[in-house]
Amino acid sequence: MSSTVITNIATLVTNDPSLGGTSPLGPVRDAAVVIDGDRIAWTGESSKAPATDNRVDAGGRAVLPGFVDSHSHLVFAGDRTEEFNARMSGRPYSAGGIRTTVAATRAAGDAELEANLTRFLTEALRQGTTTFETKSGYGLTVEDEARALRVAAAHTEEVTYLGAHIVAPEYADDPAAYVALVTGEMLDACAPYARWIDVFCEKGAFDGDQARAILTAGKARGLHPRVHANQLSHGPGVQLAVELDAASADHCTHLTDADVDALAQGSTVATLLPGAEFSTRAAWPDARRLLDAGVTVALSTDCNPGSSFTSSVPFCVALAVRDMGMTPDEAVWSATAGGAAALRRTDIGRLVPGARADLVLLDAPSHVHLAYRPGVPLVAGVWRGGVRVV
Ligand code: NIG
Ligand code: FE
């Protein structure tokens, strides 16, 4: 098994709380990290680093855990440039545009979906994402949902069945029949490819009772829930997520005190997706309020062709710091350890002995530059499972 030491790291973000200090990032200055095979073997001060086969000089730059993008929608065809243009001329976002992508996705061949997904993954990897979750939700037939999940499952373990994105157009007059399909034949076809089940719980998509029925049916098939909750308006999604012990309630843009309390008392992570507010010109979710209440917060891209067409976690970190009341340390924690928590993973999102060797080398002396230098491509190197891929 080959081993590599990265030395001369100005700031090493470990997310190891046992290192103490005031930051959740457990930063180590003048640090080194040793990779053995696909795992982290050692972290500490550069001067104490053990000898290894290979040596990489970080040149006084920062190293942090690879980003964990715990919310994306990457299996689709077409784009929605026109819709975005119209929105930037003042038209509001409604999730109705999902139908445009459903039509394009159904019409696409497998090779086109595969090529699109690969393109977005390559894009994300160059920006430091080493783990990503992705969803179906642009097929909305038994065959098209199963196909999307099959394509996704070839690239990640974190696959989410979102047959309940909107009611399929064919069922517009009979949503109950669509819910029966999503919890019946479609679930049977999709469950073998997925780890998670998700519902868009929102006016115009699925209400609280429908969402509960769908998530409960998924749970009975061994899928664990996550919820698109309280994105466009206040609704029952967040409280339902906590009630069903969902791993994550995603968006969390419109919250009451009771929602914040429920999140603080449960083990559901609040995943904030500032790319969506950016690209729909909506009010920002209040990260500060959640953090001050003790809620675990994750930050992810929501990359999709409608509401948030960015694959860049660094961009989301910058938005969260500028507009959502997060400190740079909090935002970086949320985009790494927070994303891991939203996927209920302990092997990623931190650089501690035994964790997966997923690391990002920045062209900057500290992780703070991710927010301080917005829009600048700072990712200079990426290791995934101990292998340098960028
Ligand atoms: O997370 N909210 C629902 N789904 C996506 C948007 C999908 C789309 O507009 O195509 C989201 O923002
Ligand atoms: Fe989403």
Question: What is the fold's blueprint, element by element?
Answer:
Elements: E1 3-12, E2 28-36, E3 39-45, E4 54-65, E5 67-69, H1 81-88, H2 98-107, H3 110-126, E6 129-132, E7 134-135, H4 142-153, E8 159-164, H5 175-183, H6 185-190, E9 196-201, H7 208-220, E10 224-229, H8 237-243, E11 248-251, H9 257-265, E12 269-272, H10 274-280, H11 287-292, E13 297-299, H12 313-323, H13 328-342, E14 359-362, H14 369-372, E15 379-384, E16 387-388
Residues 73, 95, 97-98, 101, 200, 228, 231, 276, 302, 304-308 line the site of N-(iminomethyl)-L-glutamic acid.
Describe the overall structure.
Its cofactor is Zn(2+); Fe(3+). 4-imidazolone-5-propanoate binds at residues 80, 138, 165, 231, 307. It catalyses: 4-imidazolone-5-propanoate + H2O = N-formimidoyl-L-glutamate. N-formimidoyl-L-glutamate binds at residues 138, 304, 306. Its EC number is 3.5.2.7. It is a single chain. Helix 3 packs across helix 4 and helix 12 (313-323) crosses helix 13 (328-342). This protein has 14 helices and 16 strands. The strands form three sheets. It has a seven-stranded mixed beta sheet with strand order 3-2-1-4-14-15-16, with no helix packed on it. The chain has two domains: 3-66 and 350-388, Urease, subunit C, domain 1 (Roll); 67-342, TIM Barrel. 34% of the residues lie in helices and 23% in strands. Helix 7 (208-220) links the parallel strand 9 and strand 10. The two termini are 21 Å apart. The chain has 390 residues and is of the alpha/beta class. The protein is globular, with a radius of gyration of 21 Å. The mean pLDDT is 97. The longest helix has 17 residues, at 110-126.
